[in-house]
Amino acid sequence: MDQLSLVSSNKIFGGYQKVYSHQSSELKCKMNFSLYLPPQAEGGDVKLPVIFYLSGLTCSEQNFITKSGFQRYAADHGIIVVGPDTSPRGVKIPGDDESWDFGVAAGFYVDATKEPWSTNYRMASYVNKELYELIQQAFSNVVDPERIGIMGHSMGGHGALISTLRNPGLYKSVSAFAPICNPIQGPWGTKALTGYLGDDKSKWVEWDATELVKKYDGPPLTLLIDQGSIDQFYLDKQLLPENLVEACRSVGVPVILKLREGYDHSYYHIASYIGEHFDFHAKILKA
Ligand SMILES: N[C@@H](CCC(=O)N[C@@H](CSC=O)C(=O)NCC(=O)O)C(=O)O
């Protein structure tokens, strides 16, 4: 495991919350990611399911591991959890830290094609190829490569949806908290897609969950979407879950939209329902 450096390790709910760093070939910089090893991983004689968790705008690998309380449920179900960072770090592209919704901590889980972003901003390939393979190789004694799911929040919820829809079969289960569902129709999405892909909107649809689901042709999939009713970004029409639900219904892809009365966009919402999401993933990954 010499390509990984251990940054931290803390015991929690009988397992270990770890953070590693490594040199990413896709992003051309050093990256951190989190890894939760549940107690069932001890001894290394059982292969366990894995869930990738993709965070939202302004986050690093730290937000989910310190705020959601997911470790209790990962330990109960015996699930390994991997959490990448949200963009390349330290690559210093002019303008990369001028706004909180583009550039640093706002990689949108796409592969940029427009200069100057296209050299480093390759978060789709980083998550779905490089990190996906690294986890299987470095933790081959405990990872079951046939049982991998994905979830995320907001920008990361959309990342989870497009990672699944663009790579049929790669993730067996998918869920999202307050995801951006139709970025080509919302302000965050149009800013990011213009910046990373350019003005040609025919390229944007390849990275939009609502558009992708209409063409999905992979293994059967049920989407679980969790949305707080007073989430300001939902009310501001950044997220548009109803558009995704309508698209799913038009093509017969099962979707569950849970509208949670009184919850906002924060990790208080995620912490309240993360257990339900682990139950949902476990039912599929452990079937
Ligand atoms: N600009 C604000 C709000 C940023 C914010 O709400 N970020 C969310 C994700 S939004 C969509 O991707 C988040 O997860 N924040 C981290 C947290 O721990 O809550 C700001 O900069 O605070």
Number of helices: 10
The distinct ligands, each listed once, are:
ligand LAXINWYW
Show unreliable segments: none
Oligomer: single chain
Strand content: 15-25%
Which class in CATH terms? Alpha Beta
Give the helices and strands as they follow along the chain.
EEEEHHEHEHEHHHEHHEH
Q: Nearest-angstrom radius of gyration?
A: 18 Å
The structural class is alpha/beta
Major β-sheet strand ordering: 1-2-3-5-4-6-7-8-9
- Report the span from N to C terminus: 31 Å
According to DSSP, the number of beta strands is: 9
How helical, in percent, are the residues?
25-40%
Compute the average pLDDT: 97
Which architecture does the CATH hierarchy give at level 2? 3-Layer(aba) Sandwich
Main beta-sheet strand count, sense and barrel state: 9 strands, mixed
Task: Give the gist of this structure.
With 287 residues, the chain is α/β, with parallel strands linked by helices. 33% of the residues lie in helices and 23% in strands.
